[in-house]
Amino acid sequence: MNINxxxxxxxxxxxxxxxxxxxxxxxxxxxQLATRGWRVGVVERWPQAYPLPRAVVFDHEVARTLASLLxxxxxxxxxxxxxxxxxxxxxxxxxxxxxxxxxxxWPVMSSFxxxxxxxxxxxxxxxxxxxxxxxxxxAVDIDEDAASVRLTVAESAGDTPLMRDGxxxxxxxxxxxxxGCDGANSFVRSRMDTSVTDLGFRYDWLVVDVIPHDQxxxxxxxxxxxxDPARPSTVVSGGPGRRRWEFMxxxxxxxxxxxxxxxxxxxxxxxxxxxxxxTLERHTVYTFQARxxxxxxxxxxxxxxxxxxQMPPFAGQGMCSGIRDAANLTWKLDLVMxxxxxxxxxxxxxxxxxxxxxxxxxxSMYLGQIICEPDPVAAEARDAxxxxxxxxxxxxxxxxxxxxxxxxxxxxxxxxxxxxxxxPQGRVRHRVRSGLFDQAVGTGFTLLASRDPRExxxxxxxxxxxxxxxxxxxxxxxxxxxxxxDVVDLDGTYLRxxxxxxxRALLLRPDHYVFGGAVGMADVPRLVATFRGLLSQEDDGTxxxxxxxxxxx
Length: 553
Hints:
This protein is α+β, with helices and mostly antiparallel strands. The protein is built from 15 helices and 30 strands. A hairpin with a 4-residue loop joins strand 10 and strand 11. The longest helix has 25 residues, at 347-371. The protein is globular. It starts with a strand and ends in a 5-residue tail after the last helix.
């Protein structure tokens, strides 16, 4: 049994937040909450981390979130470079070229190996005070009341020290909130009154992870979809030193015959891979699906990651969507549990994330319908259409602005541009530190303006901003600027963004989305007042109960 105890938490079983599931989404959620000072317990039914690859790609937005938690992220991934789609004849249907540096300061897409990322996240988690990881414990019951939620956990079946007598021991944990990051078959979701929308997209694919012995071999393109009705296939990077192949199950094939090492090697022959020059790290059959929970919150229970949604992998957004869930949810929980707003703010979590999620699923399904075509006649018609359309590659990237939730909106409820846009990240210098904004300045709320915002805010507004944790900063291209509020825009990223959007100031949320902007510095007090007013509206009378519900025990 592997338990990381922190003083005052693990021994008593009392936390501020419980997270079920220690995958990338659960660990990201836990670390983001613990770095904000909350006591977090992570419950994971497997005694050891799963050692084999699963997800293999994340995008620039997720890279930015992970980089704020892991200094070593650059060593865990490599730029994806490209994504090429060809038909069975080798004709080019679609090419996406991924830039190395983008809107968020990271490559558009990066390839990685999930066990290495999980190990880094777990090491980060174990280094944080107040964060406990309870491996080998399975969630078996949930009880919720007005002040807290209680989670009953039982020892997972297996040869663990506490089960030598054959008795499966139980214990009860308590917290203000419980987040289910426990995968597609989520126990937490099963205890919530939420329906599931299923789009009926189901295809079985054999997934094969390989370590080529020749590490100098050049794979070009680095990422390839072979839209061949004879055997739709995927060939992509599995992270540094690894490659992944995926092969669709054809009509008439059984899962048993598909999921064999001999089948995997047979399918790998066209790429000149065999047991003499490569290691077959894993082979398994996945059923790709497209579905989501219709509500991600029920009282004190919340969902994130695969517990809330599943999608085909063709847009590389499965794990990405889960990390976005964590980034959206954790700062809102922080505000609620600290008593700075009411629990109704958590309802914006489903509103905001479901917009993104459903769009990502639609893009993934569209791409899946292109490749998952076993009929030669239909595939030929598909090829003719794609070759004639010459589609814009950007149309296949599932990023889009938020259209509802906690944003500055007009009288009709529509966000006022640039509200809802993903804010940029560039290289800056702040005081004595230089680098990407998050590393040089830090993360959290930021009011970034072309003049020092403190010059136009009164004492009451300044005190409120300090209480919420909003950094008040001036962005400038003056290389000599060194004031405490000065951020020198080394590459012009922020000044260009302000000019493009016609703003003098931006209020950025901790998940990097723009709450709203100010056209002139005289509008900055109104921008702050709008944000303050919305947080006040979210006060449903449960502030003190939420903040104190568990901590006073």
